[in-house]
Design brief:
Number of helices: 5
Distance between the termini: 71 Å
Number of strands: 2
Shape: elongated
Largest sheet: 2 strands, antiparallel
Strand order of the largest sheet: 1-2
Oligomer: single chain
Radius of gyration: 23 Å
Strand content: 5-15%
Length: 116
C-alpha cells in the first residue's frame, strides 16, 4: 500500500509518546536512553516509536562513536503546517464573520428600532 508523506507524518504524530519525543528533540540531539528516560515503557517500545518517527522523516539518527544521537527533522512538520494553514484561514475568517454579526446584534440592542 502506497501512503503519501503527509498521511505518514500525521500517523506518526498521532501518538502522544512520539509527540513528546519530538518536543524533547526541539531542544537538541539526544540518545535513545535520554529520550526513553521520561517514559515508563520498555527499550524495545521506545525503539519502535523512534523507527516510526524515522520512517516518517521526522527524525534522523546519526553515528558518533558509540552512540547514535537522534535529531529532529523539520521538513515534514513544515508540510503539516502548510496543510493546516488553509484551515487556520478558514477559522480566522469564520471568527471575523462571527465578530461582525455579534457587533450587529449589540448595535441593535443599543439602538432599539421604533416600529410604530
Amino acid at each position: 500500500m502506497v501512503t503519501d508523506r503527509l498521511s505518514t507524518t500525521f500517523a506518526a504524530l498521532a501518538d502522544p509518546t512520539r509527540r513528546a519525543i519530538l518536543a524533547r528533540l526541539t531542544r537538541g540531539e539526544a540518545t535513545v536512553k535520554e529520550l526513553a528516560e521520561p517514559f515508563s515503557i520498555s527499550g524495545p517500545a521506545i525503539s519502535k516509536h523512534l523507527r516510526v518517527l524515522e520512517q516518517a522523516g521526522l527524525i534522523s539518527r546519526g553515528r558518533d562513536a558509540q552512540w547514535r544521537p537522534c535529531r529532529l527533522e523539520a521538513a515534514p512538520l513544515r508540510e503539516v503546517a502548510a496543510f493546516t494553514e488553509e484551515y487556520r484561514r478558514f477559522w480566522d475568517e469564520s471568527y471575523t464573520r462571527l465578530d461582525a454579526y455579534l457587533q450587529l446584534l449589540q448595535d441593535d440592542v443599543k439602538e432599539p428600532h421604533d416600529d410604530h
